[in-house]
Amino acid sequence: MNDPTKDPRFLHDPYPTYAAMRSACPVQAVPTGSSGHSSYLVTGYAEARQALGDPRLSKNTAAFFADKRSRRRLHPAVAHNMLASDPPQHTRLRKLVTKAFTTGAVAELRPFIAGVTNTLLDRWPVGGQVDFIASLAVPLPVIVICELLGVPEADRPEVQRWSAELFAAGKPDRIDAASHSVADYMTGLIAAKRLRPGDALLDRLIAVRDGTDQLSEEELVSLAVLLLVAGHETTTNLLGNAALALLQHPAELERLRSNPEDVPTSLDELLRFDSPVSTATFRYTTEAVTLGGTEIPAGVPVLVALGAANRDPERFSSPDQLKLDRDAVGHLGFGHGIHRCVGAPLAKAEADIALRTILSRFPGIRLAVSPDQLDWRRTRLVRGLASLPVLTVATTLPRLPA
């Protein structure tokens, strides 16, 4: 049994492979590494939505791997976080962080996001080439989430490097080492904040831990690491994928350039078209489940391909076309159900501000290389560009006020 997603062409463009698999069967077994075991890959929209909301599909990785030998040495704060838990633990932990990402809370951050965006774009050459990923898509979300958590400015470059290492596909030793580095850092930062409290999100979580709710030390460190990593990795990919999609569709790019107020309502279609998370995080069946007519036995991993589901023609007509006026609100780019991305409002705010500012200050932006020369990150979990060379063109407008 071959895994079609191992095809070298898959990283560059996974959608033809997903379409062929979905056409054959929306839920099918695929090999898991070299162990000879199988997982089940979900590529249909209806089946993916069902899987994401089915309580029989657990995210409790600690329970799944408890009786399995492993040489991995992931730090517990990374291995056992809110994302890898089920109710009631998940419900309790999520409630503590949800208030930080409400529409109102994110609105208060918009002036800061705009200021950071303008500062980063001030460094772009006029009429030259720049890497969109390294110069904007990476630093913007890092700075924003670090500001929200209260990570000192001097520490941010190293924190970003550790976070990127956690996605070093095929390099378990590097991933494990990075997990300890970032968890140890957060442990030290929490200790420092106890001595000198502030008003950042991390300070508020510490207050909860020291108050009546009594977050354990491991829970506190785990939440901090999860918010840090999830708070910028996926947004980096959202920014890069959205920019590339627009640059490859000149008519849609011109639509937004002429009507920048349409950017917020276009984000759902951009998220659907090329989802920043290609495959949802780990789930497994706690009992036998029938999904899309396929019988899945108990105790088996289920991989939900969000990118494939968002291109299902049964849900979205002409799914391989970018249509910014499409009603794409039902996309699964942020997941679905109780584990839907808690930071979705913040990610959308950053994308809205970044895209509008770029279209205003650099209306002549275009790709500097052909699309087939682009380098994609070598991981099936997230979908994002390693770099995106663009030409700013010598047509710029003044800096937007923060």
Name the descriptors.
single chain; 402 residues; alpha+beta; Cytochrome p450; five-stranded mixed sheet; three-stranded antiparallel sheet; 48% helix; 9% strand
Question: What's the quick description here?
Answer:
This protein is an alpha+beta fold and 402 residues long. The protein has 18 helices and ten strands.
| Uncertain spans | none
Query: Biggest sheet: strands, sense, closure?
Result: 5 strands, mixed
The radius of gyration over CA amounts to: 21 Å
CATH evolutionary superfamily of the domain at 73-274 and 323-391: Cytochrome P450
Judged by helices, strands and strand pairing, the structural class is: alpha+beta
CATH architecture of the domain at 73-274 and 323-391: Orthogonal Bundle
Shape: globular
Describe the structure.
It is built from 18 helices and ten strands. The model has no long low-confidence stretch (mean pLDDT about 90). The N and C termini lie far apart (about 55 Å). The strands form three sheets. Strands 1-2-8-5-3 form a five-stranded mixed beta sheet. A three-stranded antiparallel beta sheet has the order 4-10-9. A two-stranded antiparallel ribbon has the order 6-7. It has about 400 residues and is an alpha+beta fold. It is about 50% helix and about 10% strand. It has a domain at about 75-275 and about 325-390: Cytochrome P450 (Cytochrome p450, Orthogonal Bundle), CATH 1.10.630.10. A hairpin with a 4-residue loop joins strand 1 and strand 2 (about 35-40).
